[in-house]
């Protein structure tokens, strides 16, 4: 099946000949697909059949819940609890892994909701959902009279009542909804009006400045209307439509059409690298490889409490495709090593070494700070590694010039300004701190204990002494079986020659050498 390219940008998102593989069939009407980022399976609903199913490559399709209250749209919150729109109960519910069920929303101003249909989660924890009345129709729900006289879109926060965030009569049947990558925009489509509206998201979670983003999403020749909708990592909007899925640029330009054999109701990215687009299409579920992945949803970094090592179905290495690196944030840890006052600051014990000048040349503090902020936002583990000795340096062996110089300079003494992290790189709540008395971050420290406890096997390796601490940590990490990523503009040493020699030769054999901006993009 050939997909339809209308603008050249479409072919940067998906191959026009990308195969459409059927992974399951024989269902009544499939909906609500969502991929579990840790256990690696697709969950989907079958409303008329009143059943929920899952699919994975090993077991195929398995029934997991019957009856399912004719559930429709589903997603996960940041703790990997399942959030479900139920047609039969007119409720939005949260299902916890231990089976507990919590009703998040069922009424608005004392009247029953119509039938929550689709749902998305903001990084603040607020949940937005659409409420058409399809669930009060025969087949797709339980036929019964409506209590509300309109179809709205709502926001609900933990412990709160649902708040209407759109004008009551703006939508005929609001359906799919999704955030832009920066969460500054919320897109909501209307199945009856065959269009997509976009809203600005205010700081308090309310919506403003409603306007039509795309219209005319219908055809007299093919079945299909706006229903499910997702935003990709670049801000393009993928919406179910006649013939399959239509893809719009952030400017509202129709870029192309993904073709499917059946009428598509919803879509979700999944797979170990989130580069497989799953389509729930009437009687079947299909999978299509894509070049682009989804916007980073909060659940994609979610980890259940006590969840340890990474699933064995995860990819074996950082994924490199089309020259672009892709990293799974939940497998990553970022090391910030030796970026302490004595090491790289004027006035520090090693100020005469040239290290402060090279650190400034590399913009190492700003680059590391910027990368750490982006990593924290994606739930990457941040680990500060500091060289710290007690007054008088007890326990520091003098078996190498490096350690002799350390003792002679009275450097990195606990409690001193010199041992403290440089301004801007102080630990934040949730970060880890590891102390060492050797070049490598591994030797005599609890680094590996932290990595194993948090299930991290990809290390973003940054810090001072490129040719010593950073390189030694990369070499040992590679020997231990970790994937080492070294953003070279997040490292510095005594001079550019020593830095370049390490980066261009030794480090190439033990790590993926890259730059901060590439790592930020790779984290999604």
Task: Describe the secondary structure blueprint for this structure.
Blueprint: E1 4-5, E2 21-25, E3 30-35, E4 42-46, E5 51-56, E6 60-65, E7 71-76, E8 82-86, E9 91-95, E10 101-105, E11 107-108, E12 111-112, E13 119-121, E14 127-131, E15 152-156, E16 163-164, E17 174-179, E18 185-190, E19 195-201, E20 207-214, E21 229-231, E22 237-241, E23 244-248, E24 254-259, E25 266-270, E26 276-281, E27 284-289, E28 319-321, E29 324-326, E30 332-337, H1 341-344, H2 355-362, H3 364-377, E31 381-387, H4 401-408, E32 432-436, H5 447-454, E33 458-464, H6 466-480, E34 483-487, E35 491-492, H7 496-504, E36 512-514, H8 516-522
Parallel strand pairs: 30-31, 30-33, 31-32, 33-34, 33-35, 34-36
Antiparallel strand pairs: 1-24, 2-27, 3-4, 4-5, 5-6, 7-8, 8-9, 9-10, 11-12, 13-14, 14-15, 15-16, 17-18, 18-19, 19-20, 21-22, 22-23, 23-24, 25-26, 26-27, 28-29
Helix pairs in contact: 3-8
What is the mean predicted local confidence, pLDDT? 92
Tell me which oligomeric state these chains represent.
single chain
Principal-axis shape? elongated
Radius of gyration based on Cα positions: 26 Å
In the predicted model, the low-confidence regions spanning at least 5 consecutive residues are: 305-316
Portion in strands: 25-35%
Q: Estimate the helix proportion, in percent.
A: 10-25%
Secondary structure category:
alpha+beta
Biggest sheet layout: 7 strands, parallel
How does this model look, in words?
- The protein is of the alpha+beta class and 524 residues long.
- Helices cover 14% and strands 33% of the residues.
- It contains 8 helices and 36 strands.
- Strands 30, 31, 32, 33, 34, 35 and 36 form a 7-stranded parallel β-sheet that branches. A 5-stranded antiparallel β-sheet has the order 1-24-23-22-21, with no helix packed on it. Strands 2-27-26-25 form a 4-stranded antiparallel β-sheet, with no helix packed on it.
- Helix 3 packs parallel to helix 8 (516-522).
